[in-house]
Amino acid sequence: MKLLLRISSILVLVLSSCSTNNVVKDYNKMPLDKTSMEVPYFSNPATDYVYKANITVYGNELTGIFIAKKINETTHRVVFTTEFGNKLMDFEISENDFKVNFILEELDRKMLINTLVTDFRLLLRSHYTISEQFENAENKVYSALDKNKMNYLFFSKPTNQLSKIVYASKRKEIINLFYSSENNIFAERIIIQHQNIKLKIELNYFNQ
Amino acid sequence: MRIKYILLLIFLNVSLFKSLAQDQKMSENEIAVFKQSVAVVSKKIKTLSTDFVQYKHLDFLSKDIETSGKMVFKEPNLLLWQYKKPYSYSIVFKNGKILINDEGKKSAVDIGNSKLFGKINKLIVGSVSGDLFDDKEFSISYFKNKDQNVTKFIPKDATLKKYIKQIELTFDKADATVVQVKLLESSADYTRIVLKNKVINTKVDEASFTN
Q1: Which of B207, B182, B177, B202 minimizes the C-alpha distance to B193?
Q2: CB of B128 within 8 A of CB of B73?
Q3: Residue B51 is part of which domain span?
Q4: Is residue A95 part of a domain?
Q5: Tell me: the pLDDT tens digits for B126-171?
């Protein structure tokens, strides 16, 4: 009986450590200092967000121009073109819906489209309802529910700037989004790094 | 009130006439003369270098995306297309290879006998030199206005058609060279490339085409 108890307690310990991911491991849980949050990087409907994009996918490199614009309250238009200007894909994305306006036949794969839509949705999302708050010496972290996943928003402590968003399941990190922003209004540089597949998207804002 | 209507009508009429005046269809005879003059000029081209400004127009954006750089061509098929602003990115077509230099990061694509890239290469060179009058590849229509001739090419090739719906080349009437290339993707979205400071047949080093 004692042995059984020991085994089951070990099992519980193992299982519970599996079920919480490591995103905010070693962080202290804090009381909420806000219940919602706005990320402004793609939220101004008057701004054309134009970035040079480098995509590395399983060792292959693809470059081009990434364009995003908020076209109404809920929806962003997202276009990816080559440097020469021809369109590779053209999406309309909202939190719960998306529409493919155009995609090059060679790229028209369901898995690719779903992956990119998840990435872009994460990138373009502006409103978060905060459920928990954590802290350590360097960062303040806010967590928000994202359907059946979680988003963790990392703010560097000295500057209070959003530096990273982690998109994670209960068990592990799926996507890391890194931001560099000088003015907190838009991000000059963004990296979308996948943890489970070899996909990395780098975006560098360019002033025309 | 009535005067307003009359004024409006006059204005509409004037603008209608104006737009008609802008692009008139060429006659058969004019087409023949025009094609001949372009052929003479493009035949003479051994090397060509030009600056360009590219305007990417997407209808939902508030302004066009502007990039600019330099293009160099040397007979028979060496081609450099180089963006300098706002980023540095260049692409060289050379010996069946595409060499890419993206902000110092280099890569090469072996296109071998890829028909599509052969076509794209021919298309770029043809667009800039004006030598694109291949009836097998395109349905072509010819227009003119006061200072310019405009030709519209609709690709016949199904693969090419996926990338480009229509190409419009604008020629300066005075010297029969291309001043603008417009690549249409749909009625609303296009890429417009304006060529300027064009120099023909100056010495161009092979070294220009290392990337």
Answers
A1: B182
A2: yes
A3: 33-204
A4: yes
A5: 877 777 787 788 899 999 999 999 999 999 988 778 778 899 999 9
Nearest to A207 among B54, B56, B86 (CB): B86
Residue span of the structural domain in which A160 resides: 22-205
- Per the domain annotation, does B24 fall within a domain? no
Report how many domains make up chain B: 1
Residue A7 lies in a domain: no
The verdict on a CB contact (< 8 Å) between A208 and B87 is no
Select from A77, A103, A208 the residue whose CB has the most chain B CBs within 10 Å, as the one to mutate to test that interface.
A208
CATH number for the domain that contains residue A113: 2.50.20
Percent of the residues in chain B that have a pLDDT greater than 90, as a whole number: 43
The answer as to whether A9 is a domain residue is no
> Any bridge partners for residue B154, and if so which?
B139
Extract long-range pairs of A81-84: CB within 8 Å, 24+ residues apart: A81/B56, A83/B67, A83/B83, A83/B89, A83/B91, A84/B54, A84/B81, A84/B191
Q: Are strands A49-57 and B24-25 parallel, antiparallel or unpaired?
A: unpaired
Structural domain contains residue B9: no
Which of these, A178, A201, A186, A151, lies nearest to A42 by C-alpha position? Answer: A186
Q: What is the pLDDT of residues A62-80, one digit of tens each?
A: 899 999 999 999 999 999 9
Query: Quick check: is A2 in a domain?
Result: no
CB contact at 8 A, B123 and B138: no
Q: How many structural domains are present in chain A?
A: 1
Residues in chain A: 208
Task: Note whether A76 contacts B: Cβ–Cβ < 8 A.
Answer: no
* CA distance to A48, A116, A170, B97, per residue, from A183 (Å): 17, 27, 33, 43
> In angstroms, rounded to a whole number, what is the distance separating the alpha carbons of residues B5 and B1?
7
B90 in any annotated domain: yes
Residues of B with CB under 8 A from a CB of A: 54, 56, 58, 60-63, 65-67, 81, 83, 86-87, 89, 91, 100, 102, 105, 107, 162-164, 183, 185, 189, 191
CATH number at residue B114: 2.50.20.10
Is the pLDDT at A179 greater than 60? The verdict is yes
| ipTM, two decimals | 0.83
> Would the pTM of this model clear 0.80, i.e. be above it?
yes
pLDDT for A61 beyond 50:
yes
Identify whether B178 is part of a domain: yes
